[in-house]
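Input/output pair, single chain:
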Amino acid sequence: MKFRTVVAGCLIGLIVLFLVHEYSLAQANSGKPALPVATVSVSRAIRDCKATAKFGEKARVENNQMDAEEDKLSTEVKALAAGLRAGALKPDSTDYVQQYQELLQKQAQLKTMDDLNPQRKALAQQLWTEKLYKEILRITKELASQKGMALVLAVDEPEFPMPRYEELVMALRTHKVLYNGGCLDLTDEVIAALDKEEAKLNP
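Output:
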């Protein structure tokens, strides 16, 4: 009887010690401040800021001008080629040779435009996005410092369905933050700061 009482007392003591230990750990952990984490949707910041809208308008004007010049030159090439095919000029005449030379020159110009214009458009978009992204990084660092953030994550939700497999592969490689509940979203503040810099971004 005494042996059972002693064993029971020991078990109760061990349980009490275990509970006290767990409670002390819980108290210690609850005293630690949570890591202050914020998020920014970079794609939304780029898309929704006023500077992007202004850049888009300027790019459309420049792109339309390039397309118009290309269409005009293409029309001239077709007219020259049709004139030569019509047979109004003799192949051994000076006028024929001059028109043929002009056709070759304009065809070369048109080929250059066909090759160069898409690259010019893509480069302009790339340089703009790079410029704006650098500004987003600068603003994000300043806001994070002001708010005492230890970490800021870039969060951009992929849009489904994706039209191409390559886009799905890219999303799998780049979409790293799967859940961010409770994090401070700085995106609107980043956009507001970008809007204040709109004149500087589009001189």
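The chain has two domains: 1-32, 33-201. The longest strand covers residues 37-40.
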